[in-house]
Specification:
This protein is of the alpha+beta class. It is 17% helix and 18% strand. β7 and β8 form a beta hairpin. The chain is globular.
């Protein structure tokens, strides 16, 4: 059993949701309308391409690209080269005012030609919609109050941009206008689609009467689909994303449920919100049972084989073919062709491998104890512009630095909120007590942290929370810096605290598979100011 066999049903239903009646069997369901991935569009690559001049503009909605990093200086330099920047935010931020970053002179500001459009958006409390957490729970929320003044909802801004672009294609044509002109836009108010309409569209509906062959139940044309099991590859169903099918059914918004009962006692809470897919709370839960379908731990059972009804049942939705008798010996990992877990990857599935391996970060104070001659990943991507610099211990960068968030702040915008700023008003560098003694630093004194890419100045917070590590017989120190502060927001310590983003320090090194930046471990120097 392998669930990817249902891909045609998922794909055709998705294309029908995207292009409506313009997607037909005769034109391969408008597959050619979809843009194709022709290069790397990861975060690092987008900014690198902007720095090199091939990306001319950026829409930044609720995303502070200068602060998120890594290598904030390179991101600022990239924005200087852009033709335009559109920022949708609730506060002015470092990205929308990148030309005000520390070190840019008034004369240099005059030479920056980037046109910046700053749009006032609604905050999270001023709009409805859903949150999806790391447990895959979709939780619907209502708006607490309307947006103030001229602020607008995200979807209203996006809708206006799309409708204007489509209007231009209608007037002027183009090389391939069909994907724009024939995109489905079936909303009650096309200028401000409601997110409930979008959520229903993502869930999917029947475009013709659809019958379940097992139960003979019928979902009528126009009705919401109960789950992805109803998707078809003949064009009779539409669905924006198959994993969310079942989240908004004819019974209403399942993701808005607030049932607190938990019969399992395991924290499953099956009636609280909705978990993708099909409200399943634990993926691959068949693996919680032995080959006979009996729970390995009867006191914490999730699902099990019910011999009397010849089906899998339990406190959770079984992640398995429901009528597959354990005697058939189907593996529990149904998304892998072999049905079992993997200790190694097939050749070609990842850029490195096939076995898991430990590598040191590109910037590390120690050699890889497993294989010192190849300390870091040989296929990791290191970008090669003049701003992509990497430090070594030989150059004096001998302290590990990591970055993190604080409980009192949320990313980069609570520094605009007086209550949060009162709790933690300024940036700091968390320094182990032993390292502070060696360098001669006392709590509250200013320190300078320098990497190969930049430097920041902040007060030291001497702590015993971070302790030295013994690695290969050598004492190795680590310091920590919160990420929240920059050159925008309430400045409680104006004139005494540098406004430099923490990610000025971090490197642009990219994981070769997920293209995730390696900016949680790098090398720095630490000194008193």
């Amino acid at each position: 059993m392998n669930y990817w066999g249902n891909t045609p049903k998922f794909a055709v239903s998705f294309l029908r949701a995207m292009f409506g009646p313009a997607a037909s069997k005769e034109n391969d369901w408008a597959f050619d309308y979809l843009p194709k991935v022709d290069r790397n569009y990861s975060w690092i690559q987008i900014w690198d391409n902007m720095y090199r001049g091939s990306v001319k503009g950026l829409f930044a909605f609720g995303m502070n690209g200068v602060m998120i990093g890594p290598d904030s200086k390179k991101n600022i330099e990239a924005l200087k080269k852009a033709d335009w920047l559109v920022v949708g935010e609730i506060y002015p931020d470092e990205t929308s005012e990148f030309w005000k970053s520390p070190g840019i002179t008034p004369e240099e500001m005059k030479g920056i030609q980037t046109t910046v459009y700053r749009l006032p958006c609604a905050g999270f409390a001023e709009k409805d919609g859903s949150f999806t957490n790391s447990a895959r729970w979709l939780q619907w929320k209502n708006a607490a109050l309307p947006p103030p003044g001229d602020c607008r909802l995200d979807q209203a801004i996006v809708a206006q941009i799309f409708l204007k672009v489509r209007e231009l294609y209608q007037k002027e044509g183009g090389k391939f206008p069909d994907p724009i002109l024939k995109l489905a836009w079936p909303y009650g108010d096309p200028h401000n689609p409601s997110l409930s309409e979008v959520a229903k569209e993502i869930n999917g509906k029947a475009l013709a009467d659809v019958t379940d062959p097992a139960t003979k139940l019928v979902t009528k044309a126009g009705q919401q689909l109960p789950s992805f099991a109803w998707l078809r590859d003949d064009g009779s169903t539409s669905c924006g994303n198959w994993i969310y099918s079942g989240s908004w059914t004819e019974a209403g918004p399942q993701l808005a449920r607030r049932g607190t009962e938990d019969p399992s006692g395991l924290g499953i809470y099956p009636n609280w919100a909705w978990s993708w897919p099909v409200n399943r709370r634990v993926l691959y839960n068949r693996a919680s049972c032995d080959v006979e379908g009996k729970p390995w731990d009867p006191s914490r059972r999730q699902v099990w084989w019910n011999e009397s009804v010849q089906k899998w049942t339990g406190h959770d939705v079984p992640d398995f073919k429901p009528d597959s008798n354990p005697k058939e010996h189907l593996g529990p990992f149904i998304m892998n062709p072999e049905g079992v877990g993997r200790l190694f990857m097939p050749i070609g599935a990842v850029a490195d491998g096939p076995f898991p391996e430990h590598y040191e970060p590109i910037e590390s104070p120690v050699a890889n104890l497993l294989h010192p001659n190849q300390s870091n990943n040989p296929v990791v991507e290191k970008l090669k512009t003049p701003l992509d610099k990497y430090g070594t211990v030989a150059e004096g960068f001998n302290i590990i630095c990591t970055t993190y968030r604080l409980t009192e702040h949320y990313h980069y915008w609570t520094k605009n909120n007086p209550a949060n700023v009162e709790l933690v008003p300024e940036p700091f560098v968390e320094v182990p007590a032993e390292l502070a003694d060696e360098v001669g630093i006392r709590g509250g004194e200013k320190v300078k942290v320098t990497s190969a890419r930049g430097e920041i100045i902040a007060k030291a917070m001497v702590t015993r929370r971070i302790k030295p590590m013994m690695i290969d017989g050598k004492k190795t120190y680590q310091i920590g810096i919160p990420i929240h502060w920059g050159y925008r927001g309430i400045a409680e310590d104006e004139g005494r605290t540098a406004h430099t983003p923490t990610n000025l320090l971090s490197p642009t090194v990219v994981d070769p598979n997920a293209f995730t930046p390696e900016f949680k471990g790098f090398l720095v120097k630490l000194e008193r100011v």
